[in-house]
């Protein structure tokens, strides 16, 4: 089971709803994230680089595997074992770990059958429903419909089935079901090696090495064994300049080397002793035998005949394989018998669901209709849907709904290289311009909390002296704009400024999602700015196009959102100078130094102080106008069981979606 440690770009779909690893968030929906930017349910992930730009970045010389790595000769394993002072690390079954955590919560007040008779119209009922429906499957497997099909919903299509090219929530979740992983984390962000693929995990006393012994009963979907050599090969692919990696290189590039000493023994060599060394090891894995002979001719892994075939029929190592793919409509995953069996014996738990159909429905109203009619089994809900469209018999006939806290924020993202937003005072003026009362009441319908910056107030890294939320103050906004040189010099009602010898009116385009809530939030901003002489043209865009505009820095302002990473250090990818998800091209040397310090500090309280400082500096610099924090609001068909929430949503931790099951006698 593959888990992406990076932030996920969210899709503005929920209250305005947009979703893995930031960039423009997908429309708030009920993610990816993305950075949906939320989950494939209104969240999207970071944006992949376009083919043209990626091609332009390709080195002109011959392809060299791992050319981004410094020269390093790994010492013999016997020498390492003698001096490392290995410390054993946990190797756990994700579902067993989840059972422990649920036991700490105590037994649910209601049975699932009783909970399904409730309507989620109060915090009390929400807690009862969440506890009852979150109970895991019987450990003996009795009463489970192992032939069940679950139909999931995403707002954005799978752009690539190659896990090293993943950058959206849809792709991250695809990878979590089809990919083979070595290390993951639970809902509390505590790391452990995955018992299904790892026999042993050890860390050296100086924290500069990790040794993993892989199990010998792992196979790719084409029948070839999964070995340590696949992991070393993938690491070198990620660290090849000619391969246009959109997201997973972050963190992986802090590894000095990954060495396969035999088919099962791996040693990860770290450049430094960092608090983030474990998440840096969480990169996806691709089969060496499928790519080694073709990579040099097509390092983009998209253009050759062989790679096109792998895109449509990928060789995977996880519990599910891709069996059908209709672009922009759906893709279908089927359980792999050879994942949980080996040489005729069961060696891993059998996945509860036989088939996962993933339907791409960008329009939220259409998706909700499909949910009510039973055509999809789950979706993330926007605020309006939660409040106004999921309270009647037509919804509760087949479904229930649950909310859980997520560390997800939405914002307007400014391009600091734009002639309009390079000055901090202008960006602060944008923050003062927003009518937050109207935003929270009309767009978010009172369900969300006004944002106080990039880290969530419930998180351990939020500063103790955290900032006070902005309140609309148009006079203050006008004063700041005037200080930055934006005045109405010709009396036409529009602010202007002389730039490079010409008079430039303050008129810019704000990109947003094609969702009702995305349009509403952007239009509210337009109306606010109209009052202070700034013309804001709202331009809704299809999400993949929006992501590409962000990747190429071809925008003045855009709507976005980010979900939580497994560690606050992942925010470097968004706010660090020159980082590939720093779509607004923000740069502050002090922030860069603090990110360095945060990775080198192991004391939890001192780490929290460092990231708290980053939070406050970002709030002062306002590279984003932070709008609100969005909880996770999801609808589930009554037949589904086993869903639980973490700060990253119901699926982005172990066991995530793999805990979902359907009772044999489902309603």
UniProtKB/TrEMBL annotation:
Domain of life: Bacteria
GO terms of biological process kind: peptide transport
GO molecular function, one term: peptide transmembrane transporter activity
Compositional bias segments (type: Low complexity): 28-60
Solute-binding protein family domain boundaries: 200-580
Signal peptide as annotated in the record: 1-19
Keyword flag Transport: yes
Region annotation Disordered: where it falls in the sequence: 24-60
Keyword Signal: yes
Keyword field: Signal, Transport
Similarity annotation: Belongs to the bacterial solute-binding protein 5 family.
Protein name: Oligopeptide-binding protein AppA
Gene name of the encoded protein: appA
């Amino acid at each position: 089971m593959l888990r992406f440690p990076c932030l996920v770009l969210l899709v503005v779909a929920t209250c305005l709803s947009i979703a893995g690893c930031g960039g423009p968030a997908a429309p708030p929906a009920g993610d990816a994230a993305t950075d949906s930017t939320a989950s494939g349910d209104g969240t999207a992930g970071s944006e992949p680089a376009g083919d043209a730009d990626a091609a332009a970045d390709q080195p002109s010389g011959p392809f060299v595997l791992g050319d981004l790595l410094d020269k390093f000769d790994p010492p013999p394993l016997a020498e390492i074992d003698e001096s490392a002072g290995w410390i054993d690390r946990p190797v756990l079954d994700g579902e067993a770990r989840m059972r422990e955590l649920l036991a700490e919560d105590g037994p649910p007040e209601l049975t699932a059958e009783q909970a399904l008779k409730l309507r989620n119209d109060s915090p009390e009922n929400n807690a009862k429903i969440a506890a009852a429906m979150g109970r895991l499957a019987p450990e003996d497997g009795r009463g489970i419909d192992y032939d069940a099909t679950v139909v999931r919903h995403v707002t954005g299509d799978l752009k690539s089935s190659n896990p090293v090219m993943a950058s959206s929530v849809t792709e991250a979740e695809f990878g979590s079901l089809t990919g083979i992983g070595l290390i993951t984390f639970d809902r509390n962000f505590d790391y452990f090696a995955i018992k299904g693929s790892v026999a042993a995990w050890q860390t050296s006393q100086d924290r500069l090495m990790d040794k993993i012994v892989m199990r010998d009963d792992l196979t790719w979907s084409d029948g070839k064994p999964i070995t340590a050599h696949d992991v070393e090969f993938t690491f070198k692919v990620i660290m090849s300049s000619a391969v246009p990696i959109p997201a997973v290189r972050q963190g992986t590039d802090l590894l000095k080397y990954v060495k396969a000493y035999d088919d099962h023994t791996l040693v990860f060599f770290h450049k430094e002793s960092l608090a983030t060394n474990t998440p840096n090891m969480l990169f996806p894995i691709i089969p060496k035998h499928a790519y080694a002979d073709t990579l040099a001719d097509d390092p983009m892994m998209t253009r050759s005949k062989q790679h096109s075939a792998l895109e449509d029929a990928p060789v995977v190592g996880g519990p599910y394989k891709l069996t059908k793919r209709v672009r922009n409509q759906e893709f279908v995953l089927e359980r792999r018998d050879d994942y949980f069996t080996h040489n005729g014996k069961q060696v891993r738990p059998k996945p509860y669901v036989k088939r996962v159909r993933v339907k791409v429905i960008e329009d939220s109203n259409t998706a909700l209709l499909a949910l009510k009619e039973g055509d999809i089994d789950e979706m993330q809900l926007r605020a309006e849907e939660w409040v106004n469209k999921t309270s009647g018999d037509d919804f509760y006939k087949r479904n229930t709904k649950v909310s859980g806290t997520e560390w997800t924020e939405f914002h307007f993202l400014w391009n600091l290289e734009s002639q309009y937003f390079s000055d901090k005072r202008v960006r602060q003026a944008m923050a003062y311009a927003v009518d937050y009362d109207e935003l929270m009441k009309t767009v978010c319908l009172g369900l969300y909390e006004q944002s106080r910056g990039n880290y969530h107030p419930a998180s351990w890294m939020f500063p103790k002296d955290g900032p006070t939320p902005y309140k609309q103050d148009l006079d203050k906004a006008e004063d700041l704009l005037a200080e930055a040189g934006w005045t109405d010099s010709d009396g036409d009602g529009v602010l202007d400024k002389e730039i490079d010898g010409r008079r430039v009116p303050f008129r810019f385009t704000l990109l947003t999602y094609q969702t009702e809530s995305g349009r509403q939030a952007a239009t509210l901003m337009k109306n606010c700015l109209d009052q202070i002489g700034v013309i804001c043209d709202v331009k809704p865009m299809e999400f993949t196009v929006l992501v590409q505009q962000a990747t190429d820095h071809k925008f003045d302002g855009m709507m976005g959102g980010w979900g939580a990473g497994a560690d606050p250090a992942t925010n470097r990818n968004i706010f660090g100078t020159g980082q590939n998800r720093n779509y607004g091209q923000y740069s502050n040397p002090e922030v860069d130094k603090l990110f360095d310090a945060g990775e080198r500090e192991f004391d939890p309280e001192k780490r929290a102080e460092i990231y708290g400082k980053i939070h406050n500096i970002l709030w002062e610099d306002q590279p984003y106008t932070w709008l609100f924090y969005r909880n996770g609001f999801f609808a589930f068909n009554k037949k589904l069981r086993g869903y639980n929430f973490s700060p990253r949503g119901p699926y982005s931790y172990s066991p995530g979606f793999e805990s979902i099951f359907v009772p044999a006698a489902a309603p």
